[in-house]
Structure formats: structure tokens, C-alpha cells
């Protein structure tokens, strides 16, 4: 008992379970985490007092430690206490000693960091890094038979920033992000890759589905935008490329969609253009001449 009193100053909770799975000692931190006075727990079976533990990873770790004589760990959300716990079970002569830690905030921080690494903070769409990861997974791992890429660049968006300010520009980008994602079906996902550029992936879709999505986006783009800071309208240039028709790998697919988008820009904007065999020939010629320009 004295050993457990010394442990009362630890932030981790400590409890001793005997070989009949009854509480023998519960320190103050453990009682606080379990939201029960230790006097209510001592001598009672853990599975009876916390029935939702049955079948959980905690039960598995506790029984594994008792059976093998080796430490085991479990981390899981325990709904009755609305808490993520990390529990470390250590075999001892009388049963097992369990160190319990509340890791709810650490888990929440991990989720936030993961979201920051995956999503664009302004629009909530996936970011460039996540887009590339997904595209490589689809193509390199062979999980998709076809992938259409729509490369979207807003026309004359710089004028909005210059006329109304960057805060107004960000409001417009949020609206555009919502309109793009609202134009997509289950087979597609949208990304903001930076600035006023967006990319849409359409996976294993019927023929001409990508062109239909592009047309739908163009229609939504032309709708009037009204935010607290600005009233305006925008258009976009969209380039389309398809794996495996117009590209052999993920990087080439993105490059070809980008090339088609610039071709749409040259037509005056507010156009949709597909990457063609002629585009491939021109691009191949430019790439062959590129080393000459460096000399």
C-alpha cells in the first residue's frame, strides 16, 4: 500500500488487478481517470465494474500479459468515459499492474496535425501533397483502370486580389472550392494545389464523365459570387488528361493536364481542353529541345 501512496504523485494512474481480475489497489490518479473512488473498486472485478472493457483491446492486453508473463500495451477510445486511454500492463506476482494514461488531447493533436498535412486550410479540400499521394497510389499500385485529371486555373483571379484585397480573394476561393466539390460524384475528389489552381481526379468513370464534370464546373464557375467583402464572377480554364490514354504515369498525367489547361488559356480562358496527340507531339518536341536551351 505504501508503494501505491508514493505513486499518488504520478500523473499516470496505477492499479493492481489480482488473478481473479479484481482491483487490489487503485491510486488517486487511476481513480480520477476511472471516475470512481478507489473504495468503490477495491475487491470488485474489473469486467463487472467496466463491462465495456470486455472484448476491447484493453482486455486483450491484460489477459495477454497475465498469460505470457510479458508486458503488453493497448490504446483505444473508451466510450463510457469519453476518453482515449493508453494502458500498459505489467505481470507481477499477484496478477498484473496497469499504468493508465489519458491520451485524449495527444490524439486530438495528432488528428489536427494529420489534417493539416492532408487538407488545404482555406477550402477544406485535399492539398497538393495528398493529391499526389492518392494519384500515385491509384496508378502505381494499379488500383484504378482509368484516372482523369482536370487541371483548373481561375481566369484573371489576380484582378480580384488587386481590386478587393487578399481577404476578399480568399472568400472567393472558398466559394469556388465549394462549387467544385459540389459538382463531383462519388468517383471524384477535388484538391486545391495552391493559389487559384485546383485539380480534380475522376476515377474509373464512364467515358465522357470527366468532360461532363468539367462542363458542370464551368457552369457553376460562371454563377455570380457574393460574399461579405466582394460581389464578382469568375471563369476558369480547364485542362483534361486521362491515364492511360494520354499518360503512362502519375507525373506525366499531371503535366499533360497542366499543358491542356494552358492551351485553354490561350483560347481566351473559360474553355475546356483535352490533352491530344498533337499536344503530346509538341510537348515531346519541347522536351527534346530543352537541353539545347541550357547550352
UniProtKB/TrEMBL annotation:
Protein name stated in the entry: Diguanylate cyclase
Molecular function terms from GO: diguanylate cyclase activity
Lineage: Bacteria, Pseudomonadati, Pseudomonadota, Betaproteobacteria, Burkholderiales
SUPFAM superfamilies per UniProt: Nucleotide cyclase, PYP-like sensor domain (PAS domain)
Enzyme Commission number, as recorded: 2.7.7.65
Gene3D superfamilies assigned to the protein according to its UniProt record, in alphabetical order: 3.30.70.270, PAS domain (3.30.450.20)
Residue span, GGDEF domain: 145-277
UniProt KW keywords: Nucleotidyltransferase, Transferase
UniProt cross-references to Pfam families, sorted A to Z: GGDEF, PAS_4
Enzyme class at the top of the EC tree: transferase
Domain of life per record: Bacteria
